[in-house]
Predict the structure.
Amino acid sequence: MFEAASYLQSLDLLWSAASLEEQRDITRIMLKAIYVDVVAGQIVKIEPLPMFAKLLKEVCERICVEIVS
């Protein structure tokens, strides 16, 4: 979990400097799946990898994105 927390702390800097391909790779490190409401154009659910699940829980609750396992 410490490794995941360290990764998330630097995510803002990584993301802003990353190309679209690198952003895709960053996303793949943390998530198994992303579920999108195409009509609304928003993410409605994510399936995080186990080491990121607890860390993403609070953020997902704030932005009304469900976490599935």
Observations:
- The chain has a mean pLDDT of 89.
- DSSP finds four helices and three strands in the chain.
- The two ends are 17 Å apart (CA to CA).
